[in-house]
């Protein structure tokens, strides 16, 4: 007589456990979550150099995740910048509002030292933040950089279009930077290409410059899309900001070859306050998350404003030029 193989008791127990687990999982897939009520606060942003033609401050309302209208610009906000020596600037309201930009104060020169920003709007709690002006970065002085460049590649092409000749130039440099590194202070810098616009009458039509670290995994520098360049950080106490090597590329086009050859690649080197550097860093992580565990707390943008939204950040900067000779 043929004997059929019957399932073992262990198999029945395993199937029972599986189905009961699936039932519990199915019951728990859809859950109603009560989001906490959000009380709108002032979100204030002011990022500037100490000396500038236009200082722009922005005030908006913070918004909760369920707020369908989103954040609103506050055109009646008033701003006051006060120095530790007692001097101050006040601007804002409809008078200084420039549509699409913010509240604009012209011809500003902020002294070295500690500045406090205060933003007032009648429907909200006053927002405050403080900043130290970073040292002035330059090629000379107490907070100086050193730069060496080597022109590696020059390619010149021309193209005839009727009677007109169009010229194209590609240039490539290796640049090495030594940046100031203060004992007992964390220093932060930003290196980025300067953008340029030209009129139709110009003999120079395009001057595009881009840069990248020569070493891909140099931990001292990270790309930052919001800041438009490379954030550089002091990561140790022992001259960690020496021998920073970058590759700089430039693409030019125009109708006058001599003009193209004489046109340098232009970069901006900025010294950032630690708060401004952290603001840029967290916004970059939010925009370009690098992955991680599935169930993690959401990353919030850094803020040094008393309401918890926005940033008051100061920086100094200078221009670098890389010539063809």
Strand content: 35-45%
Q: Going across the major beta sheet, what is the strand order? A: 5-6-2-1-17-16-11-14-13
Overall outline: globular
Q: What Rg do the Cα atoms give? A: 28 Å
Low-confidence stretches: 1-6, 11-17
In quaternary terms, these chains amount to single chain
> End-to-end distance, in Å?
100 Å
Helix content: 10-25%
Q: What's the β-strand tally?
A: 17
Largest sheet properties = 9 strands, mixed
Quote the average pLDDT.
Answer: 85
Succession of helices and strands: HEEEEEEEEEEEEEEEHEHE
What would you call the structural class?
mainly beta
Treating each run of at least 4 consecutive H or I residues as one helix, how many helices?
A: 3
Pick out its properties.
single chain, 325 residues, mainly beta, nine-stranded mixed β-sheet, globular, disordered N terminus
Describe this structure in words.
- This protein is mainly β.
- Helix content is 13%, strand content 43%.
- A 9-stranded mixed sheet has the order 5-6-2-1-17-16-11-14-13, covered by helices on one side. A 4-stranded antiparallel sheet has the order 4-3-7-8, with no helix packed on it. A 4-stranded antiparallel sheet has the order 9-10-15-12.
- The radius of gyration is 28 Å and the shape is globular.
Sequence-ordered SSE layout with sheet pairings:
Blueprint: H1 9-29, E1 42-48, E2 51-61, E3 78-83, E4 88-92, E5 97-98, E6 102-109, E7 114-120, E8 127-132, E9 146-161, E10 164-178, E11 188-193, E12 204-213, E13 221-224, E14 229-233, E15 244-254, H2 257-262, E16 265-272, H3 274-287, E17 310-322
Parallel strand pairs: 1-17
Antiparallel strand pairs: 1-2, 2-6, 3-4, 3-7, 5-6, 7-8, 9-10, 10-15, 11-14, 11-16, 12-15, 13-14, 16-17
